[in-house]
Write a structure and sequence with these properties.
elongated, 0% strand, disordered C terminus, mainly alpha, 216 residues
Length: 216
């Protein structure tokens, strides 16, 4: 893919087709801009702040050791890891970008904007789901909730968050390709990176971010 071959040729053919598609340019640019750190980081900061508040309230209703600060902090660390992982891959593979980006810089795989969006909005959705689930298990009136019912009640919200995050990132990827910033496989590579960081965040939070059995 990074040098020659049928996969790269197919990828670039698909990219040229999407670039010439009927998707309105202003809409595509708006979607592509959602992958900017200047947009994604404030969104994650706001969600992390709300999640910290929600998790602290839930921790106060349940005696025992807890680390409500860990999920938000780990989320910010996950986003900070994106450039540390993306830049070496770009330098190593040195894949040329689409024609509109000729001469700007080399190394377009994976997409930094695609990875930023996938990780930032993915972590925001996971934080929202985790905080909502913990809050449902420990209501503000102080009475213990049935955790089985709380988990069932949290399912629709989790499904909506997952669907919304998936659609949002699909839109970002489409915008990046439509505007000629990246090839489709650049975006796919960034999603694969997110597919590593997001489960890692879940594993860290499940292992060290709460009480044993708190979500069971």
């Amino acid at each position: 893919m990074a040098a020659h071959g049928a996969v790269r040729a197919l990828d670039e053919r698909l990219g040229r087709g999407l670039e010439a598609s009927a998707v309105p340019g202003p809409l595509a640019q708006f979607l592509a801009d959602l992958g900017n750190t200047a947009v994604a980081l404030p969104v994650l900061l706001v969600v992390a702040g709300w999640a910290l508040w929600r998790l602290r309230r839930a921790a106060g209703a349940d005696p025992g050791p807890a680390r409500p600060w860990l999920p938000p902090l780990a989320a910010l660390g996950g986003l900070a890891a994106v450039p540390a992982l993306v830049v070496p891959f770009k330098v190593w593979l040195d894949r040329p970008g689409p024609p509109p980006m000729a001469g700007s810089h080399e190394g377009f795989y994976p997409s930094g904007h695609g990875a930023t969006a996938a990780v930032a909005y993915g972590l925001a959705a996971l934080l929202l789901a985790r905080a909502h689930r913990r809050g449902a298990a420990h209501p503000e009136d102080g009475r213990p909730a049935d955790r089985g019912r709380a988990r069932i009640a949290a399912v629709p919200a989790a499904v909506l968050l997952a669907a919304g995050t998936g659609l949002l990132n699909a839109g970002v990827g489409l915008g990046l390709v439509r505007q000629g910033y990246h090839w489709p496989l650049d975006v796919l590579g960034s999603w694969c990176l997110a597919g590593v960081l997001l489960p890692l965040w879940c594993a860290v939070c499940d292992r060290w971010g709460g009480r044993p059995g708190a979500d069971r």
